[in-house]
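Key result, reporting period 2: structure in, sequence out.
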């Protein structure tokens, strides 16, 4: 028995010595892994950042990186799903010790309840040992759980990075089809349409649809006009083609910059995850080493106390298991250090490549901007070149349009004078001065209307010739005109009715007319209203648009009614004969005779008043 204890003691001393020697090989947690260690362990030369690499070298590096990443993914997925992994073992050990501790606590309560103090004391010692084991198992399980979470994150990051690396490789080898020019231009147009068709939330779907259709039509018209102008300018067409190519090159360079930036971001995540895994591996080394030491010390102690063989065998098995975990954790530290150095070397290479790509992208952007400036300069209508070309192309037509406007205006004045004079002169009513004033009024109104119509239409034609979008302008003017016409419809009705009234010569100044309930003499006529003074001296201002019907009592001829007051003492028959004789004398008079169209009616008594 003593020989056995001596043998186990020697085994414990040797194990502790080996543990110290192995511990000396473990890098401290805060020490940065060296590239020399990584190169010796992995058997690979360290990769220094290159100033410039060819496409062939980049393809080879990407293929090697993809191969390593696929291998690493398979290892991680296999380890993640392995039922005999460190996580599964740690979970199983913790659950078993947790159940054992719970059972022993229940047994201890029962022993204390039964009054078995000696057995309770012995069980309390066992509980203390189980509690220590459970605490160590808990720490082991926590590290395994944290490592499992980190592995899951690493798998997701590595999958993204693998996809980006594959896309970069396909781009270099030409396996990835590039978008054709039509799809790119259509994408840009769709983006512009989406930005331009955003409207307020209060608009209805129908209004949005109409707005989109109007904008699309306007863009089509504008594009058509630009295409026509471009076809007539070979220099501009060549500059636009060059600008389009430069823009595509700039877009490709920008896309490559974004791809490298995304790969670097994923690689930095992988580096952070590898650093975390390395830290966890070092903690696992420390935990396994401390567990081994505690179990070996417990083994020596229990041997001295004369523990049974089963307990001693369990302690030996636990120490050997801790030793195996210690060696496995050391291997994990070495492997994590190698991977971390590989990731850092790859990051340095990608960062060097990113610098070159950024420089190329900036040069492509400047070249595209320069080409676009050339196009803008050629498109600028205020340059001397474009002004001269515009005058040659559009100047004669604009001059013809302006000249046509003045000619049409002159012809409208010429024919309006004769037309209105012909219409107005078709009647003999009124004096020559009155007929002339009426004709001037009608001619002025007609000429103003013709002038406005001619110059509005002519101005629109000139604007269209100058390249303006007349459709939008006409639509806006129509909307404004509709609003004005709706708000001033009564005023427009008054002017139109006044024009028709003057044209038809329904009544003139000093005519006695009856409009509705108003009867009186016309004192003033305008295009908007008619001023009538009744027999009581009251002046009525009547808008022409409100006149539904006019009764002219002096149109062509009129009947003069003369009221003569006669005293009651006079002979009525004699008075009537005197009045009849006076009417005959007026009819025979040289001055008043031509104004009388027929003999006067016989006088009669109309009413009997209070006095003569």
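The corresponding designed sequence is given below.
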């Amino acid at each position: 028995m003593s020989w056995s204890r001596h043998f186990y003691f020697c085994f414990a001393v040797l194990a502790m010595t080996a543990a110290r020697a192995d511990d000396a090989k473990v890098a401290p947690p805060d020490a940065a892994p060296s590239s020399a260690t990584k190169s010796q362990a992995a058997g690979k030369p360290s990769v220094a950042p290159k100033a410039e690499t060819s496409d062939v070298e980049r393809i080879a590096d990407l293929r090697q990186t993809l191969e390593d990443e696929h291998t690493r993914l398979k290892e991680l997925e296999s380890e993640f799903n392995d039922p005999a992994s460190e996580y599964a073992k740690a979970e199983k050990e913790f659950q078993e010790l947790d159940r054992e501790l719970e059972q022993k606590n229940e047994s201890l309560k029962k022993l204390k309840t039964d009054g078995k103090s000696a057995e309770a004391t012995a069980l309390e010692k066992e509980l203390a040992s189980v509690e220590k084991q459970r605490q160590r198992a808990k720490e082991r399980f926590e590290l395994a759980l944290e490592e499992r979470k980190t592995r899951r994150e690493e798998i997701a990051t590595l999958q993204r990075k693998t996809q980006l690396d594959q896309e970069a490789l396909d781009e270099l080898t030409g396996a990835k089809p590039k978008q054709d020019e039509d799809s790119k231009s259509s994408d840009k147009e769709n983006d512009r349409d989406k930005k331009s068709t955003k409207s307020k939330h209060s608009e209805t779907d129908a209004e949005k649809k109409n707005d989109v259709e109007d904008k699309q039509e306007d863009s089509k018209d504008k594009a058509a006009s630009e295409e026509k102008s471009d076809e007539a300018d070979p220099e501009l067409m060549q500059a636009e083609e060059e600008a389009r190519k430069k823009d595509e090159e700039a877009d490709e360079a920008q896309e490559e910059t974004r791809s490298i930036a995304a790969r670097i971001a994923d690689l930095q995540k992988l580096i952070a995850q590898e650093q975390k895994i390395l830290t966890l591996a070092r903690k696992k080394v420390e935990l396994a080493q401390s567990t081994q030491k505690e179990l070996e010390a417990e083994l020596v102690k229990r041997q001295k106390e004369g523990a049974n063989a089963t307990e001693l065998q369990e302690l030996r098995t636990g120490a050997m298991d801790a030793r195996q975990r210690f060696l496995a954790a050391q291997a994990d530290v070495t492997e994590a250090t190698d991977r971390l150095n590989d990731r850092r070397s790859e990051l340095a290479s990608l960062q060097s490549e990113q610098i070159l790509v950024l420089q190329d992208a900036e040069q492509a952007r400047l070249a595209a901007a320069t080409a676009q400036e050339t196009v803008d300069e050629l498109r600028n209508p205020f340059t001397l070149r474009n002004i001269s070309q515009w005058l040659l192309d559009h100047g004669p037509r604009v001059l013809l349009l302006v000249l046509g406007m003045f000619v049409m205006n002159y012809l409208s004045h010429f024919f309006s004078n004769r037309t209105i004079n012909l219409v107005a002169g078709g009647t003999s009513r009124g004096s020559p001065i009155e007929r002339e004033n009426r004709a001037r009024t009608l001619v002025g109104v007609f000429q103003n209307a013709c002038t406005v119509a001619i110059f509005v239409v002519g101005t629109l034609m000139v604007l269209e010739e100058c390249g303006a979008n007349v459709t939008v302008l006409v639509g806006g003017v129509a909307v404004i005109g509709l609003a004005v016409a709706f708000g001033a419809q009564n005023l427009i009705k008054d002017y139109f009715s006044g024009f028709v009234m003057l044209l038809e010569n329904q009544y003139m100044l000093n005519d006695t007319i009856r409009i509705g309930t108003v009867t009186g003499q016309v004192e003033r006529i305008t295009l908007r209203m008619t001023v009538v003074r009744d027999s009581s001296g009251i002046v009525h201002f009547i808008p022409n648009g409100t006149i539904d019907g006019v009764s002219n009592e002096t149109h062509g001829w009129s009947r003069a009614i003369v009221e003569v007051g006669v005293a009651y003492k006079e002979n009525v028959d004699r008075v009537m004969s005197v009045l009849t004789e006076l009417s005959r004398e007026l009819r025979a008079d040289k001055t008043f005779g031509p104004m009388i169209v027929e003999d006067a009616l016989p006088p009669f008594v109309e009413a009997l008043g209070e006095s003569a």
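The chain has 14 helices and five strands. The beta strands are 512-515, 518-525, 529-534, 539-543, 551-552. This case is discussed further under Risks and Mitigation.
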